[in-house]
Amino acid sequence: MTNALRLCVSALALGLGLPLAAQERAAEPATSDAEAEARRDIIVTGRGLDPALSRGVYATTTLEREAIASSASGRIEDVLRNVAGFQQFRRSDSRSANPSAQGVTLRALGGNATSRALVLRDGVPLADPFFGYIPLTAIAPETLGEITVTRGGGSGPFGAGALAGTIELESSAPGAAAPLLASLFANHRGETEASAMLTQSLGRGFAVASGRWDRGQGFFTTPTAQRVPASVRAEFENWNVAVRAVAPLAETLELQARVGLFRDDRTLRFRGADSFSRGEDASLRLVGRGEWQFDLLAYVQARDFGNVVISATRFTPTLNQRATPSTGVGGKFELRPPLLEGHDIRIGIDYRRAEGETQEEALNAVTGAITERRRAGGETSNLGLFLEDDWQIGPLLVTGGLRADRTSITDGFFRAVNAAGVAVNTINAPDRSDWAVNWRAGAKLNLSRRFDLRGAAYTGLRLPTLNELYRPFVVFPVTTEANPALENERLEGFELGFDWQPVNALVLSVTAFDNEVENAIANVTIGPNRRRRQNLPAISARGIEASLAARLGEVSIDGSLAWTDAEVRAPGTALDGKRPAQTPEFSASLTLAWQPASGWRVAGTLRHVSAQFEDDLQSDSLTPATTIDAFVTVPLWQRLSLMLRGENLFDETIITRNQGGSIDLGVPRTMWLGLRYGF
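User: That's the sequence. What structure does it adopt?
Assistant: Structure tokens below.
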């Protein structure tokens, strides 16, 4: 555990221990009836300030707890696939992909493994400080109460990471479920999943302890025809534990704290191709809900990653990326002053700093001897100032915001020495910094009680990650070079949409958008089996997103679709006009569920993803994939239920990687049986 994390944990214990201890003292000063009544009215939520009115101006989807806890795989990425426009870098989930490839994005604005969408858990950014990927196995869906996905509009707090949008994960609130939630599952391959969450009232506050452990032999990601004696299943084992506590300090003042740890171990494709990722995160948050509302947040992340690369010809180690220690620290302060009637004004400042270093050794594939030692890393930081105002004028809501960011990239280096310690390559990147101004503006008109028309325009910003700047990597047979001269990405876009509720049981939302990322960072082919991270002039994406929600008594229908015309704009190059790598043109999801009052739930989900290209030159393609999942809950006794889950019921072949005919596959048909208590 790092010193920074120890300091934050100590502050957490001190900050929570004092108010909770004070609340539980047996002897308290006498209070009047009025004071006692006021104290009984204190309500602790464990959340931040209420969402801004402007949230409804942008294309937003909200997932409730029932949908979050009812996925066939039990994985958070599976839940998010029901949102129009959501995309991972690869189609594989967090059981069978390299953790560093777990970038998430929206609106087909991907193209590499770094996240272009900002993912927050209780207001805290989750992206790895070095790579920018999201530690998906550290997110247990059953601990969440709500997920809100906002596409586009990358301004506001921590806006420098919200290039394609924001995914906000909110922890489950007290009272949303039983004090004890527990589940145990096993599938037909002998893999297991166990989780538990305990909620305990502490005075007028509460504490939540949660944990989850997944392990299994996995499935063969290599097609039968391509397997060799060294081919193995995608074995995995991961766990996460967390403690979260919330305490009132005053009638309108609330202190929140969280500490979490996780570990993820996987094997991919060949025996010995092992990877690990681990993390220790802590945060403190002070929320004031008085007349002058405010949200004060501080957090620290300690992360590490390791990976062994196996030769695809000799099946022996060629690279040992033994460690990638990194640290992320940051915070924000947001103030909502009651200055003007009819206006919701937000003023704030936020800060993020990431530092890290990769430590790896190149190995002789025959002898196993170290041939080269490599070190690479640096530091990036972002200081943002933001001002936003939502103005309600009768049926019209007008919103606008400005954001100024000072970004810096410092202490960047790459060093390689041979086995004798003699330098063979040294790069010391110059320090650089810059100011950038971004804005967003929009309006929503309530034309009738059941029909809203909305429109918005915006810009956004993303810094290159330390991984993109300084670390080269190999996915056989392709070597991708880093680029310390990468510039910040910038988004410009607009959208128009409507929300229509013709009857109480039906809601339809449609959004048309046109977004463009200038200086888009992509893995660009520069020679046979060689790529380099470069800033492309632009990636444009225009399309339509739609969602449908219907409630017909005990039956519900939830659907989403996204059609996107995305292309690279690089005049004079072979990439101009081509579709970005790893971006499908069309994706859709439809869930039909039956849930009577008796506690049963039967649901089926149909998903389709169209063809997409593996690489920037469109030489290798991934065929379309259509899958059907199922989820069944059978009540047994009180809060105890029998659960049946089925993934990819018709055993569709899901191609997740295709490099010159070398193929990886996604999850085959998988059947789960388990027990769940308390949900």
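The longest helix spans residues 3-23.
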